[in-house]
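Quick one: structure for this chain?
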Amino acid sequence: MRILQEVWSLVVLGFLLCLMPSCQQNKALVLQTPTRQYQTQQVVLLVIDGVRFSDTWGDSSYALIPNMANQMAPQGIFHAKFYNQGKTLTNPGHVALTTGNYQNLSNNGSEIPDHPSVFHYYLQHTKAPATQAWIVASKDKLEILAKTNSQEPAAQFAPSTDCGNNGQGTGYREDAVTVRRAKEIMTRHQPKLLLINLKDPDSQAHGEQWQGYLNAIKQSDSYAYELWNWIQQDPFYKNTTTLIITNDHGRHIGNRFNEHGDLCEGCKHISLLMLGPDVKRGFIPTQARSQVDVAATIAELLNFPIPRRDGEPMLELLREPARPE
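Got it. Here's what it folds into:
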């Protein structure tokens, strides 16, 4: 009887161990593979931090986003039904965008993603050097995007980072510096995959600076247009780059603009603008999408497999390849 009890205890212990994250991460992964070939050879993901939909695309005058609405959207697709369905804070929002998985992690940079990011999988699949994938952020705490708790092989392929003043723990820097650094990195290293974070709308709002928040949105709109024009004038990136512009989270509605973090409409409703050679120009999407679909879409465009998680590629936004006559 005692022997049976000991055997049963070992069986129960083994079962409990296999419920732990490390064991779950080692199980066979179901891969999501690209469906077709694309003209896109590079992807740039621009995240404008903490912008409320009602202050931008929800305003029919587009007063704060004249460049994105009037100059850029006609060249690509604007998605009005795009959401953060997870924790509406900076770090969780960026993790959802880059891993394709909603994770309820700390917002102060003390916790890292459970899963590898699309940057890890890209470098693993292509065997390219780390300088071919970058996290360039005004917020130093977003350096966590290059890290993961995962035991998957992809975890060993960390992207390059240029975050905050000089990495995690050194404080935020101005968006003008981030935009300049992004262009310098693109010129020097010609990365195939790049994330850029602009902090100012979120920082101004947290400071309860209403006019500063509005000005920061307008400045971010100018930066987005400047970046797109730069891409289209650079011989390496021109006509082969998809630019994805979105947000990590919104903000509370009404006069509570200074905060965010729940699933109110103001916090979860964000925007998506896509431009590039494979985007259905002028298409009006009707299927609601969320942040976790971005990573899968990037992998689809750059032709590498990633594990199936919360998201899936937004194929309805992408053109079918031309059939030979």
